[in-house]
Specification:
The complex is a heterotrimer of chains A (135), B (557) and C (434). Chain A has 135 residues and is an alpha/beta fold. Chain A has one domain. Chain A is built from 4 helices and 4 strands, in the order βαβαβαβα. Chain A has a 4-stranded parallel β-sheet, with helices on both faces. Chain A is globular and about 55 Å long. Chain B folds into 4 domains: 130 residues, Rossmann fold (3-Layer(aba) Sandwich); 184 residues, FAD/NAD(P)-binding domain (3-Layer(bba) Sandwich); 149 residues, FAD/NAD(P)-binding domain (3-Layer(bba) Sandwich), CATH 3.50.50; 56 residues, Alpha-Beta Plaits, CATH 3.30.70.20. Chain B is built from 15 helices and 27 strands. By secondary structure, chain C is α/β, with parallel strands linked by helices. Chain C contains 10 helices and 24 strands. In chain C, strands 5-2-1-13-24 form a 5-stranded parallel β-sheet. Chain C has a 5-stranded parallel β-sheet with strand order 15-22-16-17-18. The termini of chain C are close together. The chains are: A alpha/beta (135), B alpha/beta (557), C alpha/beta (434). The interface between A and C is small, with 3 and 4 residues.
Chain lengths: 135, 557, 434
């Protein structure tokens, strides 16, 4: 009987330079561990994320995509993350229509929240891994 | 296109979980990669020389440096390209340390991850174009927020360096917390005297505008050209500042947060600050029994204050010594966890205080209960391993430092970050302790973390010096990462103009296209994501760059 | 404000001196830096990691060192020292002796063939590695040294000290960079102001015979342990004792600090933190390591320090309150005898390696320097400073930063370097009346 292979998800994350990316840097400095399948793309603001990027990532094989930025009210570019919130909400609805709602997540992480960053990405990775392995 | 890939071992920091030699060999097989090398410390002189020699030898026009996070070593790697007449924006930094070797344990998986991250850099850099840094004039003026000892030090220095200074203080008086101290340790100088000296010197200078009972209400602009709106008792004032030093100090810990301390319920329970204010007004019975408690509001996870407030052990010693000197017959007992008498002269002070007869008990105090005969401390002696109940005529709480009350507001206004304890976050704890993530905005004194008076003065001056260094040139370089419109693709729908938060996009009625006002553009890229015609792009982060980075991360290998 | 034409002397090339020099240079001041050793970097470059972030020390400091060497406003003089000083107006006339390197920096490419060929190769204890590991008589102090040039140790080189050597180094050198005729240089220059950053020495615990340093194998000082952990150190960063990896470690804090007997009542301020750092490094690098730390108080007072201390304990380091009475030889191991003050019992703990968290001392060279410059020091030998101008010495125009004026960690040293540079700027401005 063939050994069942554990499938590991590929997660692409868009992290804003001023908050999330900084938190991910701090997570590294503090040697906090998170799954290797999580890979980041740095953008100046989460509002830079075009819905087309999310679709492209899913199309090219990402099991999950997240967009992360500063907490509402703390955006370095003042209101960028409000736009992000609306765009991603609209995109989630579209993806739901195609049965892909679980592939996209949005969360807020401030520059000092290294632990939160690690928790959020690990949680997403584990959830998607469970589904990917039929559990 | 000739690309060079340089992979750093970072000593063993990257090497120990990423096969760096394997990686540099792997990338040699890519036709667009002209050279692919790895080296122990790319930031060292031989490392840097390796890169510049390579650029020259191979005529490289794209450079990928896979090493620590891009925020480290600022201009260092870009300067290497400048030295060899290659546009510095043709450099791509890839973080395989903070984002790979330090966050994963498995060598094989980490190396695969690093491979994709570097590939992402390679594909992205292929779309890079030379960018020009614009030179802008800067205002030789500084906004100093906070008139405490740190702010005063910063303001004085900047003023002496011929900078126009705007000092904004919320309370009616300058001097902050130091003003109230009768004896500033270790010099034992009177705090009010120290402040008076600085204040007088400052007021005598003609390039300093002081606003007391005032606060910052609005803040706009960019480095070298900030516009600050200050709400003063004489109305609103708008000033132009080249940069900012944030020195808003701290808030003394409020013991109400720990009701078991009984603070506020009995006049016999006071804080070190209360004691300072009472001074000679303090009246104790004959042969008084006095307790001094260390670590109030610090090293306390229960109330969300896990950090050490750095100054309270010395404050507690001062309180104990003060009581013993005034009341030589008194019984004074100090309750502590660790005796942090580390400042200059601190250890000697601790020993001398013991010799004067103050008792030191290593204990945890669970509760303070005021009784008619005395205030009773219920605690556990950790050395004798026994529980005790002891009554005192006075209990002095050595309170710690909490973050300044307005840290959230100021952080919001200036767009700088707070750390986990709501003090201001520095750009790098060792390399850049006064910088924030925003160019031109610096932090000083206890608003970035507990400090004593001497340290606050040092910090204020060092921070001010940093700002001066930037402004002294009279000009600064602005990041070229701003948006640009391709008029051929623009349909004139004006969606980007509507979305733009900085109001940097303007519509041309005649040509029926938009254009970007460079000086106002913040570089967020919202317009790029909004445009349905792919007509407006954020330089450095255009669609093709990000699109190909996505592909690289997911490429089957 | 035109700051060109002003000259400041920075004495000492550690993180304090480097900070002050870079700040002054960025304000347009001409800076001359005098460093007595062959390279700048001081103590910080000897560290593997820095607390509390466990940042790689070299990664943090190396770029600043390179910046110093490349900065047009900074003239770096290594293997140099101050010989005399006289006040001249608001400034100072200073005599500097540049000792001979016996290697022409303009010709040296740092290739290393001279060191390979030297007859004394691997025979001379290496100071940079705290005398662990060996080097040749012609050597590079460490791979990231600035200046990135070789030099000859005049006391251990057979030719320089005794005139007896075939000079294989000269044969090996392809650029003819080695010059045994080098006499060095003596010069005198005027400086508008001086910033001292003399740094510190480490307490030598040999006199504490009960701890076995120098007599028992496996007892090392904090800085020696740093070198052992460092990838550029004598063991390439593997924690080894005589080629084997120790599994049990005992760290003893407060050796030579808070200690009237050894002449230092003061707290050295960095040892609690660097011990926690060492404990973390061991727990991270040595599988199943057993780690004990003996302390009186744990002084984790800085930003993120207490949290780091807590994490170190959570990672398995066992903290015992009480300083050991003695370290003795056991059966194939060392035995630490300590009274555990929290439990009240006497314990005998077996261990493979004992690391003494040795305190700091002012450098002997600092005392000599202060003599030359008429600067007041305190009873311990640290330079006295004004309480509200913490870099101001008793001499107008001479400032001090870093450990020279008392124990400090890296962030405090950086702040004090900036402070000293700012006072220096003010002094210069005042001096010219502008």
């Amino acid at each position: 009987m063939e050994q069942k292979i554990e499938k590991n998800p590929e997660i692409v994350g868009f992290a804003c330079s001023f908050c999330t990316f900084k938190a991910s840097e701090m997570a590294g400095s503090l040697r906090m561990k998170y799954p290797e399948g999580v890979k980041l793309i740095q953008v100046p603001c989460s509002s830079r994320v075009d819905p087309a990027f999310v679709i492209k990532a899913i199309f090219e094989g990402a099991d999950g995509v997240f967009v992360a930025g500063c907490h509402p009210g703390d955006c370095h570019f003042i209101k960028g993350n409000y736009f992000t919130r609306r765009k991603i909400a609209a995109l989630k609805e579209e993806l739901e229509a195609f049965g892909m709602k679980d592939k996209l997540r949005l969360f807020w992480v401030s520059a000092a929240e290294a632990r939160r960053f690690v928790e959020k990405v690990t949680e997403m990775y584990n959830d998607i891994k469970e589904k990917k392995n039929g559990r | 296109m000739k690309t060079g890939i340089f992979i750093c071992h970072c000593g063993h920091n990257i090497k120990h979980t990423v096969d760096v030699a394997g990686l540099s060999e792997y990338f040699r097989k890519y036709p667009q990669v002209t050279v692919s090398e790895d080296y122990p410390f790319l930031c060292s002189e031989p490392g840097q020389n390796m890169i510049t020699d390579s650029i020259e030898k191979h005529g490289l026009d794209r450079v990928i440096v896979a090493s620590c996070a891009p925020s480290l070593h600022g201009e260092l790697f870009k300067d290497l390209l400048r030295k060899k007449d290659v546009n510095p924006f043709l450099l791509r930094r890839v973080s395989i340390r903070e984002h790979c070797s330090w966050v994963g344990d498995d060598m094989e998986e980490n190396t695969e991850k690093a491979k994709r991250l570097i590939l992402s850099g390679l594909y992205g850099a292929a779309h890079f174009i030379p960018l020009e840094e614009k030179q802008v004039d800067v205002n030789k003026s500084a906004l100093v927020l906070g008139g405490g000892v740190s702010g005063l030090s910063a303001a004085l220095f900047l003023s002496k360096m011929d900078m126009q200074v705007y000092l904004v203080e919320e309370t009616p008086e300058l001097g902050g917390r130091v003003r109230e101290l009768k004896s500033v340790w270790p010099s034992r100088k009177n705090g009010a005297d120290i402040i008076a000296e600085m204040e007088n010197e400052l007021k005598a200078r003609d390039n300093v505008a002081i606003f007391t009972s005032s606060k910052l209400t609005n803040f706009e602009g960019f480095f070298g050209n900030y516009q600050a709106t200050i709400d003063t008792p004489n109305g609103e004032k708008k000033v132009m500042a080249g940069g900012v030093v944030v020195a808003i100090g701290f808030t003394p810990f409020d013991p109400d947060i720990k009701p078991e301390l009984g603070y506020g319920r009995d006049p016999r329970i006071v804080t070190t600050l209360d004691l300072e204010r009472m001074a000679d007004a303090l009246k104790l019975p004959d042969k008084p029994r006095v307790a001094v408690l260390h670590c109030i509001g610090s090293r306390d996870e229960q109330i969300g204050r896990p950090y050490c407030s750095r100054i309270c052990c010395i404050n507690a010693l001062r309180a104990a010594e003060g009581i013993k000197e005034r009341y030589p017959d008194s019984y004074v007992e100090s309750f502590y966890m660790d005796m942090r008498a580390h400042p200059r002269g601190g250890e000697e002070f601790f020993e001398d205080t013991q010799e004067k007869g103050v008792l030191f008990t290593r204990a945890n105090i669970a509760e303070i209960i005021p009784e008619p005969e005395g205030v009773v401390l219920h605690g556990e002696d950790t050395l004798l391993d026994e529980v005790f109940e002891r009554g005192f005529d006075l209990v002095v709480l050595s309170i710690g430092m909490s973050s300044p009350a307005t840290s959230r507001d100021i952080a919001s206004l200036l767009k700088i970050s707070l750390d986990k304890d709501k003090f201001f976050l520095e750009a790098h704890i060792k390399l850049r302790p006064f910088d924030t993530a925003v160019k031109g905005i610096f932090i000083a004194g206890s608003c970035s973390g507990p400090k004593d008076v001497e340290e606050s003065i040092s910090h204020g001056r060092a921070s001010a010096l940093k700002l001066y260094g930037f402004l002294n040139l009279g000009y600064a370089f602005v990041d070229p990462f701003i948006s640009i419109v391709d008029p051929k693709r623009c349909s004139g729908c004006r969606m980007c103009e509507q979305a733009c938060v900085a109001k940097a996009i303007k519509f041309d009625e005649d040509k029926h296209v938009v254009h970007v006002e460079e000086a106002a553009c913040m570089g967020c890229g919202l317009c790029n994501a909004t445009c349905p015609s792919s007509a407006i792009s954020l330089k450095g982060y255009v669609d093709t760059i990000i699109g190909d980075e996505i592909s690289a991360l997911l490429e089957a290998m | 404000m035109d700051n060109s034409g002003k000259n400041v002397l920075v004495v000492g090339g550690g993180i304090g001196g480097i900070t002050a020099a870079l700040e002054l240079a960025s304000c347009g001041i001409n800076v001359s830096m005098v460093e007595s050793g062959p390279s700048i970097g001081g103590r910080m470059i000897q560290l593997d990691k820095t607390f509390p972030t466990l940042d790689c020390s070299t990664c943090t400091l190396s770029p600043k060192m390179v910046e110093v060497s490349l900065n047009h406003n900074i003239d770096l003089m290594s293997v140099s020292q101050i010989t005399h000083m006289a006040r001249k107006g608001p400034g100072f006339l200073v005599g500097i002796k540049k000792n001979p390197r016996y290697v022409d920096p303009k010709k040296c490419t740092a290739c290393g063939t001279c060191s390979e060929a030297c007859v004394m190769k691997d025979r001379i204890p290496h100071e940079f590695n705290m005398m662990l590991g060996k080097r040749a008589a012609i050597y590079m102090p460490f791979p990231q040294a600035i200046p990135q040039k070789y030099l000859v140790d005049p006391e251990r080189c057979l030719f320089v000290s005794r005139g007896k050597c075939k000079k294989a180094c000269m044969d090996a050198c392809e650029t003819g960079a080695i010059d045994f005729e080098d006499k060095g240089e003596e010069l005198e220059a005027y400086f508008d102001s001086i910033v001292l950053a003399p740094g510190f020495d480490v307490y030598d615990p040999t006199e504490k015979q009960e701890l076995g340093y120098g007599t028992l194998p496996g007892v090392v000082t904090g800085l020696e342990f740093e070198r052992i952990c460092s990838v550029t150190g004598p063991t390439g960063g593997d924690i080894l004792l005589n080629g084997k990896e120790p599994k049990r470690f005992y760290f003893i804090q407060c050796v030579g600090s808070r200690d009237r007997q050894s002449g230092a009542r003061y707290c050295s301020r960095v040892c609690c933190m660097y011990t926690a750092k060492h404990a973390s490094i061991v727990k991270d690098r040595v599988k199943d390591a057993e780690v004990y730390v003996s302390y009186i108080d744990v002084r984790a007072y800085g930003k993120g320090y207490d949290e780091f201390y807590k994490t170190t304990q959570e990672n398995g380091a066992l903290y015992i309150r009480g300083i050991p009475g003695e370290v003795v030889e056991g059966d194939g191991c060392l035995v630490v005898r300590v009274e555990d003050m929290l439990t009240g019992e006497m314990r005998e703990i077996e261990t493979d390696m004992v690391v003494l968290a040795t305190g700091v001392r002012p450098r002997k060279a600092t005392a000599e320097l202060c003599d030359v410059l008429s600067i007041e020091c305190d009873d311990y030998g640290f330079i006295k400073v004004d309480a509200v101008a913490p870099s101001q010495t008793n001499v107008d125009g001479i400032f001090v930063c870093g450990m020279g004026s008392g124990p400090k960690d890296v962030p405090d040293t950086v702040a004090s370097g900036g402070e000293a540079a700012s006072r220096c700027m003010e002094y210069i401005v005042k001096g010219t009346g502008s």
